[in-house]
């Protein structure tokens, strides 16, 4: 591969000081290793900061395992997406690097196309019905998850277990519950990818059609024709707007404007009758809509609004003030729909033949249906399910805290799920036998060590990509979701252009303002009105913050990334996928974000 | 259509339609169509080919167009000699009285619209050939900017007529087997717009043929610098669908052309660096140009190539279209089929995935 463009080899990347031994926190099969080195060094690996923006704790890596198992299953084995097998991944210094696995044999691609046409074709032909069923299937999964119980371990089992001749005891209940919990997340991610992978394939076809018909059409114009409008992802934010209006109606607005933390605001509300009525309104919205979490569901510490309302209390305060100023908070969905139809009609008229217009209509109709699901599903899986999943893991954590294995419930997230199973066996053995488990001696120092490693890993800045830039990338998901194309990778490799950064022109317009670099969800509350948000990746749930910023810049993000959609909705200029924004830009620097041309200029 | 010998010598732009193309040439006819489409066009009139015929006949010049191949070693030399004879004869021959009176009246009338006895005008040849792109190649697109006074006007008109007999135009007609004596051009006489900026625009991307874009090129001053390729113009790319500016490329434009003397010479004026590097159009002007170009294309029914100018005179409507013709490069190409399976989206998806990605 002499002369090939390449990023650093994964084997050239060192361990951050103080994080030595990080490899032991993750399963052997997720590490770059000498035995697979020859193959690993020939591939492109890019940092999936879109889904895993921070260093992943050992337990949280389960979302990557479940996700990529499901992507592989659905792309390669179930629907046989012609040019794409699954997406491989590795953990390096705690960060998730991914690599598409292409099908290169043309004869095999043709054979897969026949299978794909038959199998995915069945889904496309029945898409709306299947998606309705899919939602019910997911809600059923959430019900089953919520029903999982980790019963406390009694000194003596209830007598009824004996007289009903149950035959097994509470240790077995806990073991089963644990297996159910792990099975649940793996199954849900399969169901997630059941619709998503072939969804990307349909969207990619429309995208490809547009690029052929209009060679210079921008990605955002394509997205605007497809635009999902009434998706459930917008609902939580709409509920907040409703609650802001209620606060004014009930005369409790001042409570939100006076104080910051969610806990204190909720305490103050409980003190008055009006406040209690507002809280009843909150309850009405909370399940399921406030299972929205502050991240994208892939990490346990991105808490749901329902569990920690602090971030949304400041949003509520903001909405209340804007209502008091007489502003209209509603998204003008009718205008968005009209704009979408007008643009679609405009491009359609420019097509050369009636046949093309007909093909355009058909592919677009399918793509709109499919894309609606791709946007809409996120609430069900990444938010509603994932928030409840992490909480269920915490219930298991309590069992360990009660038996002295851990000091804090969240310590459980410092164990890989396979280690949790072993710790659980240790705990159950000790309890059932009546002897000492090893855990209380073994885990606290180990957890302290791991916590320190995680801190060091979090402070490390992962390079955007590793390995060799491929000639072509054929995987529709990689192109559409992450925006990774050979051109983009070459741009990441090109030398610095002084104070310029280039990325995807994701949402039109030009804005100037001071930069606010946000590396974690916790830092979101520092964002001030009129700033330019600079982040590794924007999460869907950040939408309320986007109402305050003047522009947005990200390291990662493609055409279909939620950030792009939200930025367009809020009409904020955005440049996504710059690769290096969070490294090159410092908070306070004046920026110009040119969302028309995909250029960010550091003006200082 | 009017029979040639009955045809008027002069027709105002307002009255011109596509059917008048053989009488006044493509450029003048397109100005009439621009006006009919509600586009701002500087007022003016066309001299018909009947005027040209009369000029030839009354001056006894009809027998002039013999290519004396036996006297010269090559076609090129013979063509050059004929071109020289035509130029000599055309510039010395006078306009017949009736024609001169008609021209003088039309010129005076044009002057009255701007309150001037001797208005400053642009005089352009207007090719009668079917294929105006080839006409352009053959050099029949003479333009004299800033002409003032009847004598200068009459001279510019004769020079336009002579432009049908440049060596290249002669060689072209010979090559195509066209009779030399049939060559004729109309002439368009138009009030001169002294623009702040001017240039050309296309209702498709000249780069890729993308029909969803309007691409505008412009520079400071008269449009000659852009048309002749003497400056790298600013480039503004606008979505025809949303009228959003998709891309802007502002280039240094170190000089501009202004009107020189009354004989049509131009004056080149160097510009200070801050002026040279500034965009020659603001966003609103870019969008307005694109919007008008879009309407025009819809009306004509095919992609267009338009010369435009913009003035700083505030209350008179500041955008002008000076010329409009069919875009010929991409329009004549076969558009590649976008999709294979028009009737089945599922097949289309499978086939899209089987083909290697185009990027």
From TrEMBL, chain A:
PANTHER family: PHOSPHOENOLPYRUVATE SYNTHASE-RELATED, PPDK_N DOMAIN-CONTAINING PROTEIN
GO MF, any single term: transferase activity, transferring phosphorus-containing groups
Name of the protein described by the UniProt record: PEP-utilizing protein mobile subunit
InterPro entries: PEP-util_enz_mobile_dom, PEP_Utilizing_Enz, Phosphohistidine_dom_sf
Entries under Gene3D superfamilies matching the protein: Phosphohistidine domain
Domain PEP-utilising enzyme mobile: 528-598
Organism whose genome encodes this protein: Thermomicrobium roseum
